[in-house]
Every structure is written in structure tokens, then in C-alpha cells.
Amino acid sequence: MDLPEITITDQDLAVLRRVVREAVADGRYAAASRLGNELHRARIVPAGTAPAGCLALNRAGRYLEERSGAVRDVVLVSGRGRSSSGLVSVLSRVGTALIGLSEGQAMGWPDPRGKPRVIRLLKVEPGAG
């Protein structure tokens, strides 16, 4: 699966770079590397100019996990997530896959067991981001 184009605001980029540095300092190298790779390939736009259907930090969205058919409502956060409350950390595999996606786009990656996973962003709620 080809990687979809992603869009990140310059404001989120500053926060996400700090998240990557902190993850490295905490020894979370794999998570830092995944997120860092996404930042390198992202299209960066000024804050307030990202498309309305683009998932940014602190925005709520709904995605479909295509293998299982599960649909989840989440809020993408820069800190630690709590799946029970719908908060998903951008350092998690799902969070890294979601950052910068636009409605309708899909992102694939291998899970920890090497099996392919694909998520599709279904909806982004209006709000800050």
C-alpha cells in the first residue's frame, strides 16, 4: 500500500518534534522513529489552513480498522492516551498512522506480529487543529 499524503500544521509540527525528542530521551526509539518518519514526509501548512477533514492534534475523528471492521471514535493527543476514554497518543502505532490523514484516506502498517493492518479515516469532527 502506498503511503497517503498527509498534512500537518506548523503549530502541530513544533509540538510533534518535541514529542519525538522526549520519546528518544525516554528510550522509546521505535515510536520516535515512526513518528519522525511521518513528520519528514508530511506537507506542512500554516496553522488554520489545514483542510477541514484533516486529523490534527486534539481533534476528534472516527476510523475503521479494515481487518476487523471495528469503528472507533478517538481524539489524537500528544501525551499519553487512554483508550478507555478515546484518547490516542500520537506515539502509538494507530496515532502515528492517523496524524495528518484526511477523511477517506487509508494507512497501512505491520502490527507487532507482522500482520498487515489498515485503518481508514472516516470522519473528522470540526474544531481546533
Please explain how this structure is put together.
By secondary structure, this protein is of the alpha/beta class. The protein has one domain (7-124): Chitinase A, domain 3 (Roll), CATH 3.10.50. It contains three helices and seven strands, in the order βααββββαββ. It has helices at residues 10-25, 29-41, 93-98, and strands spanning 7-9, 43-45, 60-65, 70-77, 87-89, 106-110, 116-124.
Short description:
This protein is 27% helix and 29% strand. The chain is an alpha/beta fold. GO terms for molecular function: translation elongation factor activity.
Number of domains: 1
CA distance, first residue to last residue: 27 Å
Helical proportion, percent range: 25-40%
**CATH superfamily caption:** Transcription elongation factor, GreA/GreB, C-terminal domain
- Top CATH class: Alpha Beta
Helix tally equals: 3
In terms of DSSP E residues, the strand content is: 25-35%
Task: Indicate the radius of gyration in whole angstroms.
Answer: 13 Å
Largest sheet: 5 strands, mixed
GO molecular function, one term: translation elongation factor activity
Pfam families: Rnk_N
InterPro entries: GreA/GreB_C_sf, Rnk_N
Protein name: GreA/GreB family elongation factor
